[in-house]
Design a protein that fits this description.
Residues 1-29 form the signal peptide. With 439 residues, the chain is α/β, with parallel strands linked by helices. The protein is 31% helix and 15% strand. The longest helix has 20 residues, at 386-405.
C-alpha cells in the first residue's frame, strides 16, 4: 500500500480538522506495513473483535463498536463472572434483535482469547496495571488494539508497548476520545494555526494525584479470581468491592472502579483525567511524542500547583479555572480559549467555532471507534497512535512522581530519561510479581 494519503483518508482527517496536524510519524510512515495476519481488506469481510476487561467502561465501548456494521463482537474476557454474564447477555440480546447470527465465547484467561486466529482486534478496558502486559501480548499475537487511556501504568511499560506495536506492525488506537470531538479539535487548530499568538500558560483542570490505599479488607466473592485481577501487582493489595464493583439492580457498576484513586494501583485524577486534558494541551502546542523538560510539585511551583515546563517556555498547570469544570484553558498573547466537553469559550468571537448553538454541544463527523476500524482496513495510523498515547501518559506519570518526591524534576523527553536523578529513575517502573513479565 502506498504511504501517500488517498482521498478517503484526506476527507476523513479533514472532517476532524486534522490535515494540518498530522504527526511526524504519520508523514514519514503513515502506512503500517501489511503482515500476513493483516488480511481484512475486502469490504464484505467482518472484523472480529474480542473484549478484554468487561467493567463499566467496556460496556460503554461495546455499545459503540457493536453498532458498526462491519464489526462482530465474538469474544469477551474478564476475571469476574458477573461481568462476563452481563456482557454476554447484552451482546447476544443486541444481535438477536438485529436478526444477526453471531457466536460469542467468554473467557477468564485473556491468553485463550488472543490464541484465536479468527479474532482480528481486541478492545482492552482493564485496570491500568494490566494494560501493557495484555496489549504487548495482543501485538505479538497479531491483533490490532483499541486500548483505553491512560496507555500504561508506568513509563517503562509505555516504552515497551511502543516497540511492540511497531515491531509487530499493529494498529493501536488509544481511547482518548476527545481527539475525535469537534470542540477539542477546534481548540488544537486555533493554537497551532497561531490565532492566539505566542502561548504562555495552559491551565488544565484534572484533579489531584492518588492517595494511600485505606479501604477495609473484605472477603473475595465467589466468581472473582482476585489473583488474576492483581496480575503483576503485589499480593499486599487486598480485596475491597469498590476496586471491582458489584452491579446494581439495573446491571450497572455500582461505581467507577476505585483502584484508580490509590497509589500502587492507579494514578489518581492525574492519570485518569490528565490523560484527557494534559493530552489536549500537548497536542495543541505540538508536543505529541515529546514532553516537558521540568516538572514542579505544588511546593516548588510559582502557581502553588503541579506545573510542567516545556523547552519552548510554555507552562502547563493542574489548576481550576473559571467555571470549575474539568477542561483546559489556553492563554496566549492575543487572548484565550477554554474548552471542556460540550463547551467552548473564548476571549473573542474570532476564536469560536463558526457554527455553534447556544448549548455548545458538538458531534464529531467520524466517531473514535470508526476511525479504529477504518485504520484496521487501511493499515494507516489512527488519530491517536501509540506514540501519542505514550507521550500523554508520560506527562501524567511524571506529575505523580513529582508529587511523590515533592521536589523539581528534570526530564529529557528525547531520550525519555530523568537528568542525573537516580531516585526518580527508580520510579520509571516497578518489580512485577512472578511470573509476570513484559519479555
Amino acid at each position: 500500500m502506498s504511504s501517500k494519503m488517498n482521498r478517503k483518508d484526506f476527507l476523513r482527517l479533514s472532517a476532524l480538522g486534522l490535515t494540518s496536524l498530522i504527526a511526524p510519524w504519520q508523514v514519514s510512515a503513515a502506512s503500517v506495513p501489511t503482515s500476513a495476519k493483516s488480511k481484512k481488506t475486502e469490504i464484505n469481510d467482518k472484523i472480529n473483535i474480542g473484549f478484554i476487561g468487561l467493567g463499566q467502561q467496556a460496556i460503554h465501548l461495546m455499545a459503540g463498536f457493536i453498532t458498526i456494521p462491519e464489526v462482530r463482537i465474538v469474544a469477551g474476557c474478564d476475571v469476574y463472572d458477573i461481568k462476563r454474564d452481563r456482557f454476554k447477555n447484552r451482546v447476544n440480546k443486541y444481535y438477536a434483535a438485529q436478526g444477526i447470527k453471531n457466536k460469542l465465547d467468554m473467557y477468564i484467561h485473556y491468553e485463550e482469547l488472543l490464541a484465536r486466529k479468527d479474532i482480528d482486534a481486541v478492545v482492552i478496558a482493564t485496570p491500568d496495571h494490566q494494560h501493557a502486559i495484555m496489549a504487548i501480548a495482543a501485538c505479538r499475537a497479531g491483533k490490532d488494539v483499541y486500548l483505553e487511556k491512560p496507555l500504561t501504568f508506568t513509563i517503562y511499560e509505555g516504552q515497551q508497548l511502543v516497540k511492540a506495536v511497531r515491531e509487530n506492525t499493529r494498529i493501536l488506537q488509544v481511547g482518548s476520545m476527545q481527539r475525535s470531538m469537534d470542540e477539542f479539535v477546534h481548540a488544537a487548530n486555533i493554537v497551532r494555526e497561531g490565532a492566539l499568538g505566542k502561548i504562555s500558560l495552559m491551565k488544565a483542570h484534572v484533579g489531584e494525584g492518588p492517595k494511600p490505599y485505606n479501604l477495609p479488607r473484605q472477603e473475595v466473592p465467589k466468581g472473582l479470581d482476585w489473583d488474576l485481577w492483581l496480575g503483576p501487582l503485589d499480593t499486599k493489595w487486598y480485596y475491597n468491592h469498590e476496586l471491582n464493583p458489584l452491579l446494581d439492580a439495573d446491571g450497572r457498576d455500582e461505581c467507577w472502579g476505585a483502584w484508580r484513586w490509590y497509589q500502587g494501583m492507579g494514578g489518581g485524577y492525574t492519570t485518569d483525567w490528565g490523560a484527557h486534558m494534559f493530552d489536549i494541551g500537548q497536542w495543541a502546542i505540538g508536543k505529541d511524542g515529546s514532553g516537558p523538560v521540568e516538572i514542579l510539585p505544588p511546593s516548588a511551583s510559582p502557581y502553588d500547583c503541579l506545573t510542567f515546563r516545556y523547552d519552548n517556555g510554555i507552562e502547563m498547570t493542574q489548576q481550576k479555572f473559571d467555571g470549575g469544570k474539568l477542561g483546559i484553558k489556553i492563554i496566549g498573547e492575543n487572548g484565550w480559549i477554554q474548552v471542556c466537553r460540550g463547551e467552548f469559550l473564548a476571549s473573542s468571537p474570532e476564536f469560536m467555532p463558526k457554527k455553534v448553538d447556544e448549548k455548545a454541544v458538538y458531534e464529531t463527523n467520524v466517531p473514535h471507534y470508526q476511525i479504529f476500524i477504518d485504520c484496521i482496513r487501511s493499515r494507516r495510523d489512527p488519530n491517536v497512535p501509540v506514540e501519542v498515547g505514550h507521550s500523554s501518559c508520560t506527562v501524567c506519570t511524571l506529575g505523580n512522581i513529582a508529587y511523590e518526591l515533592d521536589r523539581p524534576l528534570q526530564w529529557n523527553p528525547i531520550v525519555q530519561k530523568f537528568v542525573d536523578d537516580a531516585e526518580a529513575t527508580k520510579r520509571l517502573h516497578y518489580d512485577y510479581r512472578k511470573p509476570y513479565t513484559l519479555d
